[in-house]
Structure formats: C-alpha cells, structure tokens
Amino acid sequence: MTEARNSDPASLVEYIARSLVRNPDDVQVLPVKSPASLILELRVNKDDIGMIIGKGGRIAKAVRVLLNAISVKKIILDDGREERYQKVLLEIVDEA
C-alpha cells in the first residue's frame, strides 16, 4: 500500500477561500510557524470577508474544524521534508 502525500494546510485554506469569494486573486494565506503550532493568516478582499466568515461564523468554524482534524497528521512538504504541529490555527485578518 502506498502512502498518500499529505496536503499543505495553507494550500487547503487557500483552495477553500478561493472557491468561496468573488475576488479569488486577492486571497493570501501567510503561514507563521512556531515550534508547536502553525498559524495561517488569511487575507481576502474587504468585500469578501463576510463570505469567508459566513453567517454566525459557520464557514470560519468549519475551516477551523478541518484544520484541527489534520493538525495531528504529519505534513509532507513538496521538497520531501516532514513537519508536525500540535495545532494549526486560522486567523482571518480584517484590514479595514
């Protein structure tokens, strides 16, 4: 049985965000690494912030649940290196 490559959490968040917004070219995901956690700063066009957060924060919460589920797995980067984080957090940056 071959092991499937794990996807980069930043790529996952970027894919989800680009699928939800009206201005996909404005989506930016900046990873901020610390020894135990990975914080993903998500920036979108100011007109699309509501689409990312969702009604009552439902979409943002769902993305955070996905990140929590994959945080226990090791992440295999494109260059073959492995990383593992105790937590992968999503920070939606509102620059308004």
Automatic annotation (TrEMBL):
Coiled coil: none annotated. One of its GO terms (cellular component) is cytoplasm. The keyword Chaperone applies. Keywords: Cell shape, Cell wall biogenesis/degradation, Chaperone, Cytoplasm, RNA-binding. It is found in: Cytoplasm. Transmembrane segments: none annotated. Pfam families: KH_KhpA-B. One of its GO terms (biological process) is regulation of cell shape. GO terms for molecular function: RNA binding. Belongs to the KhpA RNA-binding protein family. A probable RNA chaperone. Forms a complex with KhpB which binds to cellular RNA and controls its expression. Plays a role in peptidoglycan (PG) homeostasis and cell length regulation. Forms a complex with KhpB. This is RNA-binding protein KhpA. The gene is khpA.
